[in-house]
Amino acid sequence: MEKIYKKSRFQSTIIYGETFASQIKHNSTNGKHIFLITNQRYYDLFSEKLVQLFENKQALDWYICKNDARCNNLNELENLLAFLADFNLQEEYLFLGVGNEGVIQLTNFLHQSAVLKSTCWLLPLSIRSFSKSLIGSAQIELKNRPVLQIPVLAEKIIYDRTLTTDQGEGKLVDFLVFIRCGLVSSHEFLRMLFKNYSTQTRLNQQSFNGMLDEMIRYYEQSGNEIDQFGKLFEQGFSESVNGSLLSSHMKRLLGCLLQLLWSQEKNQFSFHYKNFIIWLIRLGFPVDFPEQILVSDYVEGVLKCIDRGQTALCLKEIGEIDSIQLPTTEELLMTVEKYKTTLLEIRGHINDNV
User: Are 340 and 289 in contact (CB under 8 A)?
Assistant: First the structure.
């Protein structure tokens, strides 16, 4: 299936439900120097298979990044540029980003800013990296903070389900992308998620392919808002003492849950927050606020981010955006304490009436 996807002044062709191999057969890459950027994990898994797809195997180079989802950092960019320094400026290149969300952003950024004449294709290998390819911009980070950003959209974005490998925690992290779509763009979509993925077993057994159309549509309308929802509250953990005890995925989850609760407390909209958390627990999400992180340290961390200019999207209700706002110290303290109290109530008595 193909979709024309537009973001600002850019346009991309999104292909899904087909294999990458079939795309190569239908789109000649002759005359172009193929430059593949990928993570070590995916190089080990797919390099031999991918190389066999291209006709001119001599005009092909690899750059291997770390497996870190934040490999779109300044150090990796410098190494990549050093690798490209002696490449022929007269050649035409196809930059092909294959892998996680860091590789997707790194490839996009390189394509838009390098002096080499290039086209850019992306082959995201998870839902979260697929969603990153739809944002319409690419960032480079320093010390886990964005320091460079450029508007860009790849010419082709190819989501080949046969190459994706995530199960278990990876599938949970991908599912959070759909949850954010529901929270920011559609309450009805969130209800559908609950109905179709009501247990961990159903989540593990069922494919996400049937929801790709909706995800693409929501990202075309409000991709940046969906992507950034929870970011401020997530960054608070990175600024906290003992914040390193949480994985990046756990920070992302807790950031979303806290920003949702803050929005509800601000606008007093109707939503069964406790039942929502119970559902996430059933699915296997690690929702606990770590005891090793003091509430005061966490709140101070969020306030540091606000001082640097970060903001938070407040929801008017589920699926409807209100405005960009700055949480106050009192609101942050109240939000975290209410979240911890909610968890205590849930742990004491799981309510089956979600």
Answer: yes
DSSP secondary structure letters along 43-81: HHHHHHHHHTT-S-TTSEEEEEE-S-TT--BHHHHHHHH
The pTM assigned to this predicted structure is 0.94
Could you give the 3-state DSSP secondary structure of residue 126? Answer: coil
Neighbours of 182 (CB within 10 A): 21
85 torsion bin: left (phi>0), alpha (psi -120 to 50), beta (else)? alpha
In tens, the pLDDT along 338-354 reads 999 999 999 886 544 44
Q: What is the DSSP letter of 351?
A: -
CA distances to 54, 136, 154, 204 from 151, in Å = 29, 6, 10, 35
**Which contiguous run of DSSP H or E holds residue 157?**
strand 156-159
Task: Write 273-282 long-range contacts (CB < 8 A, 24+).
Answer: 273/342, 274/342, 274/345, 274/346, 274/351, 275/351, 275/353, 275/354, 276/354, 277/342, 277/343, 277/346, 278/346, 278/350, 278/351, 278/354, 279/194, 279/198, 279/354, 281/346, 281/350, 282/198, 282/199, 282/200
Burial class of 12 by CB neighbour count within 10 A (0 to 12, 13 to 18, 19+): buried
User: Which tens digits make up the pLDDT trace of 175-231?
Assistant: 999 999 999 999 999 999 999 999 999 999 998 999 999 999 999 999 999 999 999
Q: Which of 281, 346, 318 is nearest to 191 (CA)?
A: 318
- Amino acid 93 reads Y
d(C-alpha 195, C-alpha 97), whole Å: 35
